[in-house]
Specification:
Elements (H helix, E strand, L loop, with lengths): L2 H17 L10 E4 L4 E4 L15 E5 L16 E5 L7 E3 L17 E4 L6 E5 L2 E5 L2 E2 L1 E2 L4 E2 L4 E4 L11 H8 L21 H11 L8
Parallel strand pairs: 2-12
Antiparallel strand pairs: 1-3, 3-6, 4-8, 5-7, 7-12, 8-9, 10-11
Length: about 210
């Protein structure tokens, strides 16, 4: 074997080693199962709906740059963020600690999000999955996923604590005041007594906040 061939083979080996274990954002598919538009009620304290209670599940297959599955990625390395980077209306408790997968990835690089809750405040109209800091992307165009999951929380100002400011904000969108989608906690296009009951429970002293 010539020196040139040996050198080329060595480069391929080094490249393979270098890419092993590094997440391929565009080669790690995420499958969504649920309604066309999901509505997730969240709370900074983490006592909102689970993803399955909101009717959806996200299934992950995480691969490296060589197309190999990555096992043993901790559940805490999976989280969800607001799709819209220009608005960022959703505020997360402690960043990545705001949500998690159901378990670490298995030998096939697979795990799900179904049993957890989103510890957050604010309001959002779509969620993007993140793994170890990588925004996962839809192949082949490699644009970040944006799942049509509407997030509503009683922490209306997004300061991660439900207090008198949120009470004033909720009062300002309760009928006969003008409709505000962020006060519509079940996404049924109206703010009513059901939304008031949810707000009252999470406003109750000492006011739910990040733990």
């Amino acid at each position: 074997m010539s020196k040139v061939v040996l050198f080329a083979a060595s480069l391929l080996v080094v490249a393979g080693i270098a890419s092993a274990g590094i997440i391929d954002p565009c080669g790690s598919p995420v499958d969504y199962t649920g309604p066309v538009i999901a509505c997730l009620f969240a709370c900074p304290q983490g006592d909102g709906q689970t993803y399955s209670e909101a009717g959806f599940t996200l299934a992950f297959t995480v691969n490296d740059l060589g197309g190999n599955p990555i096992p043993d990625i901790p559940a805490s390395d999976f989280w969800l963020i607001d799709c819209d980077p220009t608005e960022l209306e959703l505020t997360l408790c402690a960043g990545s600690a705001s949500s998690a997968a159901d378990s670490a990835t298995n030998s096939a690089g697979q795990t799900t999000m179904s049993n957890g809750t989103l510890n957050a405040g604010g309001c959002a109209d779509g969620l993007t999955p993140v793994v170890q800091g990588f925004l996962l992307e839809l192949a082949p165009q490699c644009d970040p996923y944006c799942f049509d999951i509407r997030v509503r929380t009683p922490d209306l100002d997004g300061n991660l604590e439900i207090n008198l400011v949120d009470l004033a904000n909720f009062s300002a969108c309760f009928p006969p005041q003008l409709y505000d989608k962020c006060c519509d906690f079940d996404c049924n296009a109206t703010v009513n007594l059901q939304d008031l009951a949810r707000f009252a429970f999470h406003f109750g002293p000492p006011g739910h906040k990040c733990q």
